[in-house]
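Researcher: Good morning. I'm working through a list of sequences from a screen, and I'd like to move beyond sequence-only analysis. For each chain I'm collecting a predicted structure so we can compare shapes side by side. This is the next one on the list. No need for commentary yet; just the structure.
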Amino acid sequence: MRLPPLNAIRAFEAVCRQGSVLRAAQELGVVRGAVRLQIAALENYFGEKLFTREGRRLVPTDRAKAFAEAATAAFSLLQHAAGDLQKDDSRKLRLGVPSAFGIWWLMPRIRSLQRALGDSEIDIVPMAVAEPLLQHPELDAVIIGGEYRPSAGVDAIRFMEDEFGPVAAPQLAATFGTDPAGLSSAAMLVSRSVPKLWDEWFAESGTPPVSFGRRQEFEDLLLALGAARSGLGVALAPRASIEDDLARNILTAPFGFIRRPAGYSLCCRTTDLRKPNFTALRDWLVKAGEGIE
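Model: Good morning. Structure tokens for this chain:
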């Protein structure tokens, strides 16, 4: 089957991803008219309109969105493969992980992981905000917590369940006891990387929402947990990220934790999963997630 013109696909994919013809043109280093011509050529190829207009915005149709996702995956795979060919570092695995998860769960186990990988090197890249792998062609794999939305060309292997709940320094937790209503006297510590986490906890735990004394936001979960350790307020945390703090009584969970079956998943490109170092990483994560290392 004859493929559509590659330049037209690239312009179309950039418009869908960037959300505008202007930003797509800036990314591709061309004028807006050139992008519009490529879009017109692709619409002529398929015999249908690929965008609708909402005010000043171009919005891809449902059919066009599906094609855009496939195009993004294809370009990501090509960019990734080209990088491997140029650098010739196929034995190095670049793994993106949520910052708190990386520091408090993964890094204490890094020697075990390195033994499992043998001669392969692993480069741990902290991510303040966990983002899909297709947005990071420079990475080989990412670990995602919570629900994962499937993407074309990317496999997700769930390796561990998780629990989450409110945590605070023991001295502060003692002031509001075991009744969640007592949280009204404390400060709510919020991470901008997971801004809806408190809403999710109230909904999933069946706890009536509480009006906190005040709210303080931090750029990521690492900073919010650091503030909780100092006694500034109450943060929500995945249990996997604070196991050591709980064991050492630096933080306490006055209301316990609730299970999140979605847990953590390793996301990597389908074509990479057959490589020995990816297989070793997957197998190690599954065992570590079960408490077997």
